[in-house]
Design goal:
2 domains, single chain, globular, alpha+beta, five-stranded antiparallel β-sheet, Methane Monooxygenase Hydroxylase, Chain G, domain 1, Thrombin, subunit H
Length: 165
């Protein structure tokens, strides 16, 4: 087994581009002549259960939900000034998709911030709109868990910070 951080049963984790989930169990599956440990992660947002090899979890970007302090820093980030983003939507889309795959809360916050403000200038192309919606949902879900607040309250908090000019 690699030196990856191990997660526990019932722990909430973030799977970038998939959502926030809960590790339901850790099982051993036989593969060729060895047994491989897998996390069984339930993603409530899509009502989906996935199996992830323990050795691949970190490589796939799976991480623990952030602390309250980190969540507050991410909220502060969406309120900050930012560098202009490329006007070419394909370049912008790829840049934001790469950030989403990295999956840190700060990366997700910066996607939400930049695409929200871009959408105020010009309607987002469909693919970019889906990316924005995914990033926003992931951000809201993780914030709700980290801040221990209902999602509607978190949504109000996010948009109150985004709308500050």
């Amino acid at each position: 087994m690699s030196k990856s951080k191990s997660f526990q049963v019932d722990q909430k984790v973030v799977y970038p581009s998939q959502g926030v989930g809960v590790i339901r169990e850790i099982i051993q599956k036989k593969f060729k002549d060895s047994k491989i440990p897998y996390y069984i992660i339930y993603l409530e947002v899509t009502d989906m259960t996935i199996m992830v090899p323990v050795d691949k979890a970190i490589e796939l970007g799976i991480r623990s939900t952030v602390s309250r302090d980190e969540a507050m820093k991410a909220l502060d980030l969406i309120n900050e000034d930012y560098d202009p983003i490329p006007t070419d939507w394909k370049m912008r889309y790829q840049m934001n998709l790469d950030l989403l795959k990295k999956g840190s809360i700060r990366d997700i916050a910066s996607i939400v911030r930049s695409l929200y403000h871009r959408s105020k200038v010009k309607e987002l192309p469909i693919l970019e709109r889906k990316l924005y919606d995914s990033a926003l949902k992931l951000f809201e879900d993780e914030m709700s868990i980290s801040l221990k607040k209902p999602k509607d309250e978190v949504q109000t908090l996010i948009f109150s910070r985004l709308d500050v000019e």
